[in-house]
Specification:
This protein is an alpha+beta fold. It has helices spanning about 5, 15, 20-30, 45-50, 80-85, 100-110, 110-115, 120-135, 140-145, 150-160, 170-175, 185-210, 215-225, 235-265, 265-275, 275-290, 320-325, 360-375; strands at about 35, 40-45, 60, 140, 225, 230, 295-300, 305, 310, 315-320, 380-385, 400-405. It has one domain: Cytochrome p450 (Orthogonal Bundle). The strands form 4 sheets. Strands 1-2-10-7-3 form a 5-stranded mixed sheet. Strands 4-12-11 form a 3-stranded antiparallel sheet. Strands 5-6 form a two-stranded antiparallel sheet. Strand 8 and strand 9 (about 310) form a beta hairpin.
Length: about 400
Protein backbone atom coordinates (compact mmCIF):
# COMPACT_ATOMS: atom_id res chain seq x y z
CA UNK A 1 0.00 0.00 0.00
CA UNK A 2 1.36 3.44 -0.89
CA UNK A 3 1.91 6.13 1.75
CA UNK A 4 -1.12 8.21 0.78
CA UNK A 5 -3.61 5.33 0.92
CA UNK A 6 -2.18 4.16 4.22
CA UNK A 7 -2.31 7.58 5.89
CA UNK A 8 -5.17 9.40 4.16
CA UNK A 9 -8.36 7.53 5.12
CA UNK A 10 -11.20 10.10 4.93
CA UNK A 11 -13.95 7.50 5.37
CA UNK A 12 -12.66 6.19 8.70
CA UNK A 13 -14.19 7.53 11.94
CA UNK A 14 -10.74 7.89 13.50
CA UNK A 15 -9.51 10.10 10.66
CA UNK A 16 -12.70 12.18 10.67
CA UNK A 17 -12.39 12.70 14.42
CA UNK A 18 -8.85 14.08 14.08
CA UNK A 19 -7.16 14.20 10.65
CA UNK A 20 -4.27 16.40 11.78
CA UNK A 21 -1.81 13.65 12.86
CA UNK A 22 -2.32 11.98 9.47
CA UNK A 23 -1.60 15.29 7.75
CA UNK A 24 1.70 15.53 9.65
CA UNK A 25 2.68 12.11 8.30
CA UNK A 26 1.76 13.18 4.76
CA UNK A 27 3.85 16.34 5.04
CA UNK A 28 6.81 14.33 6.35
CA UNK A 29 6.50 11.85 3.47
CA UNK A 30 6.67 14.45 0.68
CA UNK A 31 5.04 17.32 -1.14
CA UNK A 32 2.76 15.47 -3.58
CA UNK A 33 1.10 12.07 -3.12
CA UNK A 34 -1.02 10.23 -5.69
CA UNK A 35 -4.22 8.94 -4.08
CA UNK A 36 -5.75 6.20 -6.20
CA UNK A 37 -9.23 5.97 -4.58
CA UNK A 38 -10.16 9.44 -5.90
CA UNK A 39 -7.56 9.69 -8.70
CA UNK A 40 -6.12 12.85 -7.17
CA UNK A 41 -2.77 14.24 -6.05
CA UNK A 42 -2.76 15.25 -2.38
CA UNK A 43 -0.86 18.46 -1.63
CA UNK A 44 -0.27 18.86 2.14
CA UNK A 45 2.26 21.70 2.57
CA UNK A 46 1.23 25.32 3.24
CA UNK A 47 3.75 26.88 0.83
CA UNK A 48 2.64 24.62 -2.03
CA UNK A 49 -1.09 25.06 -1.37
CA UNK A 50 -0.76 28.85 -1.12
CA UNK A 51 1.28 29.02 -4.34
CA UNK A 52 -0.92 26.62 -6.31
CA UNK A 53 -4.07 28.57 -5.43
CA UNK A 54 -2.49 31.43 -7.39
CA UNK A 55 -0.99 29.33 -10.21
CA UNK A 56 -2.68 29.94 -13.56
CA UNK A 57 -1.52 26.54 -14.84
CA UNK A 58 -4.33 25.21 -12.68
CA UNK A 59 -8.06 25.81 -12.87
CA UNK A 60 -11.33 25.13 -11.15
CA UNK A 61 -12.55 24.08 -14.59
CA UNK A 62 -10.83 23.02 -17.79
CA UNK A 63 -13.71 23.63 -20.19
CA UNK A 64 -12.48 27.13 -21.07
CA UNK A 65 -9.53 25.42 -22.78
CA UNK A 66 -10.41 21.80 -23.49
CA UNK A 67 -13.33 19.51 -24.18
CA UNK A 68 -13.89 16.60 -21.80
CA UNK A 69 -12.39 14.27 -24.41
CA UNK A 70 -9.31 16.43 -24.99
CA UNK A 71 -8.69 16.56 -21.26
CA UNK A 72 -9.10 12.81 -20.84
CA UNK A 73 -12.16 13.12 -18.61
CA UNK A 74 -15.72 11.89 -18.94
CA UNK A 75 -18.60 14.35 -19.14
CA UNK A 76 -20.94 14.32 -16.13
CA UNK A 77 -23.94 11.98 -16.48
CA UNK A 78 -26.88 13.71 -18.24
CA UNK A 79 -29.12 13.04 -15.24
CA UNK A 80 -26.85 15.29 -13.12
CA UNK A 81 -27.44 18.27 -15.42
CA UNK A 82 -29.51 20.44 -12.99
CA UNK A 83 -26.70 20.31 -10.42
CA UNK A 84 -23.94 21.09 -12.91
CA UNK A 85 -25.88 23.89 -14.59
CA UNK A 86 -26.36 25.57 -11.23
CA UNK A 87 -22.92 24.78 -9.79
CA UNK A 88 -20.67 25.14 -12.82
CA UNK A 89 -21.93 28.62 -13.72
CA UNK A 90 -20.94 30.06 -10.35
CA UNK A 91 -17.76 32.10 -9.89
CA UNK A 92 -16.16 29.38 -7.82
CA UNK A 93 -16.07 26.94 -10.74
CA UNK A 94 -15.14 29.29 -13.57
CA UNK A 95 -11.90 30.70 -14.92
CA UNK A 96 -10.96 33.85 -16.85
CA UNK A 97 -12.31 35.55 -18.82
CA UNK A 98 -15.80 34.45 -17.68
CA UNK A 99 -14.84 34.39 -14.00
CA UNK A 100 -13.29 37.86 -14.27
CA UNK A 101 -16.43 39.33 -15.83
CA UNK A 102 -18.86 37.72 -13.36
CA UNK A 103 -16.78 38.54 -10.27
CA UNK A 104 -16.45 42.17 -11.41
CA UNK A 105 -20.21 42.46 -11.86
CA UNK A 106 -21.04 40.67 -8.60
CA UNK A 107 -18.56 42.91 -6.77
CA UNK A 108 -20.60 45.92 -7.91
CA UNK A 109 -23.56 44.51 -5.95
CA UNK A 110 -21.75 42.69 -3.12
CA UNK A 111 -19.85 45.73 -1.89
CA UNK A 112 -18.20 46.46 1.49
CA UNK A 113 -20.98 49.02 2.02
CA UNK A 114 -23.62 46.32 1.42
CA UNK A 115 -21.97 44.11 4.02
CA UNK A 116 -21.47 46.98 6.48
CA UNK A 117 -25.15 47.90 6.32
CA UNK A 118 -26.00 44.42 7.61
CA UNK A 119 -23.93 44.85 10.78
CA UNK A 120 -26.78 46.03 13.08
CA UNK A 121 -29.05 43.23 11.82
CA UNK A 122 -26.34 40.58 12.29
CA UNK A 123 -25.46 41.65 15.83
CA UNK A 124 -29.12 42.04 16.86
CA UNK A 125 -30.00 38.57 15.56
CA UNK A 126 -26.93 36.98 17.16
CA UNK A 127 -27.86 38.56 20.49
CA UNK A 128 -31.46 37.33 20.23
CA UNK A 129 -30.36 33.78 19.44
CA UNK A 130 -27.82 33.74 22.29
CA UNK A 131 -30.39 35.22 24.71
CA UNK A 132 -32.95 32.56 23.81
CA UNK A 133 -30.33 29.83 24.33
CA UNK A 134 -29.48 31.30 27.73
CA UNK A 135 -33.15 31.54 28.74
CA UNK A 136 -33.62 27.84 28.00
CA UNK A 137 -30.52 26.84 29.94
CA UNK A 138 -28.81 25.54 26.82
CA UNK A 139 -29.63 23.30 23.88
CA UNK A 140 -28.16 22.39 20.52
CA UNK A 141 -25.74 25.16 19.50
CA UNK A 142 -26.01 24.01 15.87
CA UNK A 143 -29.79 24.32 15.60
CA UNK A 144 -30.14 27.30 17.97
CA UNK A 145 -27.32 29.64 16.84
CA UNK A 146 -24.79 28.31 14.32
CA UNK A 147 -27.29 27.46 11.56
CA UNK A 148 -30.06 30.09 11.86
CA UNK A 149 -27.73 33.11 11.97
CA UNK A 150 -25.92 32.82 8.61
CA UNK A 151 -28.99 31.45 6.82
CA UNK A 152 -31.07 34.40 7.99
CA UNK A 153 -28.33 36.87 7.09
CA UNK A 154 -27.78 35.66 3.53
CA UNK A 155 -31.56 35.40 3.05
CA UNK A 156 -31.94 38.97 4.32
CA UNK A 157 -29.21 40.10 1.97
CA UNK A 158 -30.69 38.34 -1.05
CA UNK A 159 -34.21 39.50 -0.23
CA UNK A 160 -35.74 36.06 0.31
CA UNK A 161 -39.06 36.34 2.19
CA UNK A 162 -38.96 35.08 5.76
CA UNK A 163 -41.67 32.50 5.06
CA UNK A 164 -39.45 30.83 2.44
CA UNK A 165 -36.24 30.70 4.48
CA UNK A 166 -36.79 27.21 5.96
CA UNK A 167 -36.30 25.88 2.41
CA UNK A 168 -32.73 27.16 2.15
CA UNK A 169 -30.77 25.00 4.61
CA UNK A 170 -32.08 21.65 3.24
CA UNK A 171 -31.35 22.76 -0.34
CA UNK A 172 -27.87 23.85 0.61
CA UNK A 173 -27.07 20.68 2.56
CA UNK A 174 -28.21 18.49 -0.34
CA UNK A 175 -26.22 20.44 -2.93
CA UNK A 176 -23.07 20.54 -0.80
CA UNK A 177 -23.12 16.75 -0.53
CA UNK A 178 -21.67 16.71 -4.04
CA UNK A 179 -18.49 18.41 -2.82
CA UNK A 180 -17.45 15.33 -0.85
CA UNK A 181 -15.02 12.76 -2.22
CA UNK A 182 -16.70 10.19 -4.49
CA UNK A 183 -20.34 11.09 -3.66
CA UNK A 184 -22.83 8.25 -3.98
CA UNK A 185 -25.62 8.14 -6.53
CA UNK A 186 -28.10 8.72 -3.70
CA UNK A 187 -26.18 11.88 -2.73
CA UNK A 188 -26.13 12.97 -6.38
CA UNK A 189 -29.88 12.41 -6.74
CA UNK A 190 -30.57 14.60 -3.68
CA UNK A 191 -28.27 17.30 -5.04
CA UNK A 192 -29.91 17.21 -8.47
CA UNK A 193 -33.40 17.49 -6.96
CA UNK A 194 -32.37 20.36 -4.68
CA UNK A 195 -30.61 22.14 -7.55
CA UNK A 196 -33.69 21.96 -9.74
CA UNK A 197 -35.98 23.21 -6.96
CA UNK A 198 -33.63 26.00 -5.90
CA UNK A 199 -33.11 27.10 -9.51
CA UNK A 200 -36.85 27.29 -10.14
CA UNK A 201 -37.33 29.26 -6.91
CA UNK A 202 -34.57 31.75 -7.70
CA UNK A 203 -35.75 32.29 -11.28
CA UNK A 204 -39.21 33.16 -10.03
CA UNK A 205 -37.75 35.55 -7.45
CA UNK A 206 -35.52 37.19 -10.10
CA UNK A 207 -38.58 37.67 -12.34
CA UNK A 208 -40.42 39.36 -9.46
CA UNK A 209 -37.43 41.63 -8.72
CA UNK A 210 -37.13 42.64 -12.38
CA UNK A 211 -40.67 43.97 -12.18
CA UNK A 212 -40.39 45.39 -8.67
CA UNK A 213 -36.80 46.10 -7.61
CA UNK A 214 -36.09 46.25 -3.87
CA UNK A 215 -33.15 47.18 -1.71
CA UNK A 216 -31.61 43.72 -1.81
CA UNK A 217 -28.76 41.85 -3.47
CA UNK A 218 -30.86 40.19 -6.17
CA UNK A 219 -32.11 43.60 -7.33
CA UNK A 220 -28.52 44.87 -7.24
CA UNK A 221 -27.33 41.89 -9.32
CA UNK A 222 -30.04 42.61 -11.89
CA UNK A 223 -28.93 46.25 -12.04
CA UNK A 224 -25.18 45.54 -12.20
CA UNK A 225 -23.62 46.69 -15.46
CA UNK A 226 -20.03 47.22 -16.54
CA UNK A 227 -19.03 48.53 -19.97
CA UNK A 228 -22.36 47.38 -21.37
CA UNK A 229 -22.12 43.92 -19.81
CA UNK A 230 -24.61 42.44 -17.34
CA UNK A 231 -25.25 39.12 -15.67
CA UNK A 232 -27.40 36.54 -17.43
CA UNK A 233 -30.25 34.97 -15.50
CA UNK A 234 -28.27 31.73 -15.21
CA UNK A 235 -25.27 33.61 -13.83
CA UNK A 236 -27.46 35.39 -11.30
CA UNK A 237 -29.08 32.11 -10.24
CA UNK A 238 -25.69 30.43 -9.84
CA UNK A 239 -24.34 33.44 -7.91
CA UNK A 240 -27.26 33.39 -5.46
CA UNK A 241 -26.84 29.65 -4.90
CA UNK A 242 -23.10 30.05 -4.38
CA UNK A 243 -23.58 32.87 -1.88
CA UNK A 244 -26.02 30.75 0.09
CA UNK A 245 -24.02 27.51 0.00
CA UNK A 246 -20.53 28.89 0.50
CA UNK A 247 -21.77 31.81 2.57
CA UNK A 248 -23.34 29.80 5.33
CA UNK A 249 -21.81 26.30 5.26
CA UNK A 250 -18.40 27.67 6.23
CA UNK A 251 -19.85 29.92 8.94
CA UNK A 252 -21.96 27.15 10.47
CA UNK A 253 -19.03 24.77 10.69
CA UNK A 254 -16.52 27.41 11.77
CA UNK A 255 -18.86 28.27 14.65
CA UNK A 256 -19.28 24.66 15.78
CA UNK A 257 -15.65 23.64 15.25
CA UNK A 258 -14.58 26.81 17.03
CA UNK A 259 -16.70 26.28 20.14
CA UNK A 260 -15.67 22.63 20.29
CA UNK A 261 -12.03 23.76 20.22
CA UNK A 262 -12.71 26.29 22.98
CA UNK A 263 -14.38 23.69 25.20
CA UNK A 264 -11.36 21.40 24.73
CA UNK A 265 -8.98 24.24 25.61
CA UNK A 266 -10.48 25.75 28.78
CA UNK A 267 -7.48 27.98 29.52
CA UNK A 268 -7.87 29.65 26.14
CA UNK A 269 -11.62 30.03 26.66
CA UNK A 270 -10.95 31.65 30.04
CA UNK A 271 -8.52 34.09 28.41
CA UNK A 272 -11.15 34.98 25.81
CA UNK A 273 -13.85 35.46 28.44
CA UNK A 274 -11.58 37.73 30.45
CA UNK A 275 -11.14 40.23 27.60
CA UNK A 276 -13.41 39.33 24.67
CA UNK A 277 -13.28 42.68 22.85
CA UNK A 278 -9.48 42.69 22.68
CA UNK A 279 -9.02 39.05 21.73
CA UNK A 280 -11.96 38.37 19.41
CA UNK A 281 -10.26 39.54 16.15
CA UNK A 282 -7.28 37.19 16.51
CA UNK A 283 -9.48 34.49 18.07
CA UNK A 284 -11.68 34.34 14.96
CA UNK A 285 -8.65 33.84 12.69
CA UNK A 286 -7.16 31.22 15.00
CA UNK A 287 -10.40 29.24 15.25
CA UNK A 288 -10.69 29.26 11.45
CA UNK A 289 -7.13 27.89 11.26
CA UNK A 290 -7.19 25.43 14.13
CA UNK A 291 -10.06 23.23 12.91
CA UNK A 292 -10.58 24.24 9.30
CA UNK A 293 -14.21 24.08 8.11
CA UNK A 294 -13.23 23.37 4.47
CA UNK A 295 -10.53 20.70 4.54
CA UNK A 296 -9.87 20.27 0.83
CA UNK A 297 -10.14 22.33 -2.34
CA UNK A 298 -9.65 20.89 -5.83
CA UNK A 299 -7.84 22.16 -8.91
CA UNK A 300 -7.38 20.74 -12.41
CA UNK A 301 -3.89 20.66 -13.91
CA UNK A 302 -4.16 22.56 -17.23
CA UNK A 303 -0.44 22.36 -18.06
CA UNK A 304 2.17 19.97 -16.70
CA UNK A 305 3.58 21.07 -13.35
CA UNK A 306 6.33 19.81 -11.04
CA UNK A 307 5.99 19.65 -7.25
CA UNK A 308 8.89 18.44 -5.17
CA UNK A 309 10.53 16.68 -8.10
CA UNK A 310 7.28 14.95 -9.08
CA UNK A 311 5.87 15.76 -12.53
CA UNK A 312 2.08 15.97 -12.48
CA UNK A 313 0.68 15.86 -16.02
CA UNK A 314 -2.08 17.87 -17.63
CA UNK A 315 -5.46 16.26 -16.99
CA UNK A 316 -4.67 15.43 -13.36
CA UNK A 317 -6.60 16.74 -10.39
CA UNK A 318 -5.01 18.21 -7.27
CA UNK A 319 -6.55 17.99 -3.81
CA UNK A 320 -5.17 20.99 -1.94
CA UNK A 321 -5.35 20.05 1.74
CA UNK A 322 -6.35 23.25 3.53
CA UNK A 323 -6.54 21.51 6.90
CA UNK A 324 -2.99 20.22 6.54
CA UNK A 325 -1.66 23.55 5.25
CA UNK A 326 -3.18 25.30 8.27
CA UNK A 327 -1.21 22.96 10.59
CA UNK A 328 2.12 23.14 8.77
CA UNK A 329 4.92 24.01 11.23
CA UNK A 330 6.80 25.66 8.38
CA UNK A 331 4.09 28.37 8.38
CA UNK A 332 2.88 28.39 12.01
CA UNK A 333 4.66 28.17 15.35
CA UNK A 334 3.29 25.24 17.40
CA UNK A 335 0.39 24.66 14.98
CA UNK A 336 -1.22 21.96 17.14
CA UNK A 337 -1.67 24.52 19.92
CA UNK A 338 -4.76 26.71 20.02
CA UNK A 339 -3.48 30.25 20.60
CA UNK A 340 -6.24 32.86 20.45
CA UNK A 341 -3.68 35.68 20.60
CA UNK A 342 -1.74 34.40 17.56
CA UNK A 343 -0.88 37.42 15.39
CA UNK A 344 1.16 35.74 12.63
CA UNK A 345 -1.63 33.69 11.09
CA UNK A 346 -1.45 33.20 7.31
CA UNK A 347 -4.26 30.63 7.27
CA UNK A 348 -5.89 29.83 3.95
CA UNK A 349 -9.36 28.94 5.19
CA UNK A 350 -10.83 31.50 2.76
CA UNK A 351 -8.65 30.25 -0.13
CA UNK A 352 -6.38 32.63 -2.09
CA UNK A 353 -5.84 34.06 -5.55
CA UNK A 354 -8.71 34.91 -7.89
CA UNK A 355 -11.04 32.54 -6.01
CA UNK A 356 -10.47 34.12 -2.61
CA UNK A 357 -13.81 34.04 -0.81
CA UNK A 358 -15.84 37.12 -1.79
CA UNK A 359 -17.91 36.66 1.37
CA UNK A 360 -14.98 36.58 3.82
CA UNK A 361 -15.84 39.98 5.37
CA UNK A 362 -19.44 38.85 5.94
CA UNK A 363 -18.30 35.53 7.44
CA UNK A 364 -15.95 37.33 9.82
CA UNK A 365 -18.76 39.68 10.85
CA UNK A 366 -21.11 36.77 11.56
CA UNK A 367 -18.49 34.80 13.48
CA UNK A 368 -17.61 37.87 15.55
CA UNK A 369 -21.26 38.64 16.30
CA UNK A 370 -22.14 35.11 17.41
CA UNK A 371 -18.96 34.65 19.45
CA UNK A 372 -19.39 37.93 21.32
CA UNK A 373 -23.12 37.38 21.87
CA UNK A 374 -22.53 33.92 23.34
CA UNK A 375 -19.67 35.16 25.52
CA UNK A 376 -21.90 37.95 26.82
CA UNK A 377 -25.21 36.08 27.21
CA UNK A 378 -23.86 32.67 28.27
CA UNK A 379 -20.69 33.41 30.27
CA UNK A 380 -20.57 29.90 31.77
CA UNK A 381 -21.43 27.95 28.59
CA UNK A 382 -20.15 24.36 28.74
CA UNK A 383 -20.39 21.23 26.63
CA UNK A 384 -23.27 18.99 27.72
CA UNK A 385 -22.45 15.83 25.74
CA UNK A 386 -19.86 14.42 23.38
CA UNK A 387 -20.79 15.91 19.99
CA UNK A 388 -21.29 13.72 16.91
CA UNK A 389 -19.19 14.64 13.88
CA UNK A 390 -20.92 14.76 10.52
CA UNK A 391 -19.82 11.84 8.30
CA UNK A 392 -18.35 14.34 5.84
CA UNK A 393 -14.67 14.98 5.28
CA UNK A 394 -14.40 17.94 2.89
CA UNK A 395 -16.89 20.12 4.79
CA UNK A 396 -15.88 19.45 8.38
CA UNK A 397 -18.30 20.02 11.22
CA UNK A 398 -20.71 18.60 13.78
CA UNK A 399 -24.30 17.53 13.31
CA UNK A 400 -25.06 18.62 16.88
CA UNK A 401 -23.30 20.46 19.72
CA UNK A 402 -25.28 20.18 22.95
CA UNK A 403 -24.41 22.86 25.49
CA UNK A 404 -25.66 24.06 28.86
CA UNK A 405 -25.49 27.54 30.37
Amino acid sequence: MDAASEVFTPSSPEFLADPYPAYARLRAAGRAHYYEPTDQWLIPHHADVAALLRDRRLGRTYLHRFTHEEFGREAPPPEHEPFHTLNDNGMLDLEAPTHTRIRRLVSKAFTPRTVSRLRPYVHRLADELASDLAADGGGDLAARVAEPLPVAVIAQMLGIPESDRPLLRPWSAAICGMYELNPSEETAARAVRASAEFTAYLRELITIRRRNPCDDLISALIAAHDEGESLTEQEMTATCALLLNAGHEATVNATLNGWHALFRNPAQLATLRADPDAITPTAIEELLRYDTPLQLFERWVLDDIEIGGVTIPRGSELALLFGSANHDPAAFDTPATLDLTRTENPHISFSAGIHYCIGAPLARMELTASLQALLHRTPTLTLAAAPPRTPNYVIRGFSQLLVKT
